[in-house]
Amino acid sequence: MKQAIVVFNSGSTSLKFGAYAVDSDADPAALSLLCVGRIDSIEGDPHFFVKDAAGKSLAAHEWGEGHAIDHAVALQHVITWLATHLSEKTIVAAGHRVVLGAMRYDAPVRIDGEVLDYLDSLVAMEPSHQRLNIAGARAFAEAFPEVPQVACFDNSFHRTMPEVAQTYALPKEVRDAGVRHWGCHGISYDYISRQMPKFAPQARRVIVAHLGGGTSLCAMQGGRSVETTMGFSALSGLPMATRSGDIPPGALFYLLRSHRFDVAALEKMLYERAGLLGLSGISGDMRVLLGSADPQAIAAVAQFVYAMTKFIGAYTAVLGGLDALVFTAGIGENSAPLRAASCGQLAWLGVKLDEHANTAGGPRISAADSAVSVWVIPTDEELMIAQYTLALLGPC
How far apart are CA 341 and CA 289, in angstroms? Predict the structure, then answer.
């Protein structure tokens, strides 16, 4: 019977998943996509869809607008569908995206009870995703108790950052408690770093913009992370769909002291009602904002572009120059207007956009005489997780 690896990527409002065939007869390290899918808008207008490797729809389901579900229901729906759809294949492993492995795990690790307990202990550090990542592993273990599972960490890729970049100016006892610059989106950045030699083999100093519902930038030197905008948690850096990005700590103390928020309400506001949604008062969806003539929508987009410009300038200084800029993830891969607006602020770096190539989606969207090459490279976190899983467990 053919073997398959399944992968889970549990986010705050969505659940992405995939399944890959392991071609053990030809090449034990070879993986081919069987299907990829997701449940979006879990807590609002949940809808499930799956496609095969050719992009053909395999299944779709809608719970109906206003019929919110929780992640437990979403996970059970996906696991049940996978068990049925892959009934002619043996599921030999499952890989999970986990945001934080902290200092104990800087590489993928096989999941057992002790590992899950430790990862559970980190939920207080990363409350928005960590518990959901762990819930996925626990739910899969109930359905397939004999199948090995692997945790793949988003922060691992950033452990190559120099110590000065990982350290905050805090007392030792606070730093020892785990308050440091962890970073996020590392699985995506690792994938892009491995793709770069195919597109720009001479580029050593690269900034990658992972722009989705969660957004961040990563500065890479020779394919290794040296800086990234998400810091201690997935809340900092660029403004995101509903997350604030960088906020002065003094402002947060003020909101608490003035009793406008308690800790729980402040956290909920910063994660769920801030960012592009908070700026515009309209939506956290970049597509909606770019299509709107409302002054607040226009101002929200301008704020986002400004933040990108500021960080790209800083990261160019850290790298000592810039060879290539890469856009990836949902907004980065699909929004030509946002890419154009961002590149328009980088003429001082010698960036020249090829408007036709940008509209067409690349992969190269910079002009031939641009001092910095600019690219659109689709990310594939699910494939990266499957590759990590197979590499750790070996031929099954």
Answer: 13
Written as six digits, the tokens of 27 are 């090449």
On whether the CB atoms of residues 175 and 295 are closer than 8 A, the answer is: no
| Backbone φ and ψ of 214, nearest 5° | -100, 140
Residue 85 CA to residue 72 CA, distance in Å, equals 20
Q: Residues with Cβ < 8 Å from 229, sequence gap 6 or more?
A: 215, 216, 217, 218, 236, 237, 238, 311
**Confidence class of residue 24 from pLDDT cuts 50, 70 and 90?**
low
Measuring CA to CA, how many Å separate 158 from each of 185, 266, 309, 340, 391?
A: 9, 28, 22, 28, 20
Distance CA 2, CA 283 (A): 45
In the chain, the domains with their CATH numbers are: 2-153 (3.30.420.40), 197-376 (3.30.420.40)
Which positions ≥6 away from 53 have C-beta within 8 Å? 32, 33, 34, 35
pLDDT by residue (tens digit) across 249-269?
999 999 999 999 999 999 999
Query: Lowest mean pLDDT: which of 68-72, 156-160, 279-283, 383-387?
Result: 68-72
| Amino acid (1-letter code) at residue 296 | Q
Contact 151, 96 (CB under 8 A): yes
CA dihedral defined by 64, 80, 384, 219, rounded to 10 degrees? 30
Helix (H), strand (E) at residue 332: helix 329-334
The pairing of beta strand 215-221 with beta strand 31-40: unpaired
Residues with active-site annotation: 154
Q: How far apart are CA 67 and CA 342, in angstroms?
A: 37
CA distance 268 to 75: 23
CB atoms near residue 62 (< 10 Å): 12
